[in-house]
Predict the 3D structure of the following.
Amino acid sequence: MRVKLKHKNIHIPAISDDVLPHLLVRLKVYDDIVSGKMKCRICGRKLTLDTIGAIGMLNGELILVCDKLSCISKASILFSEFQTSG
């Protein structure tokens, strides 16, 4: 999937809904997601299986972001800036 942000194309990999729970188990955050303990790193909104918009690593730390377009956009910029500087 590609998203255009301020005249800049950013590549955003996607996974299917049936793979997401397995990925979250491997990342050891599935239980925290389904119990309501995980929050969006950008806005603080409670994350559920239906509201996860982005997953990434930043400085070795797992970052989860909700599905609000503004949060996904901010996270995408953050991840791309880290990749170009790191």
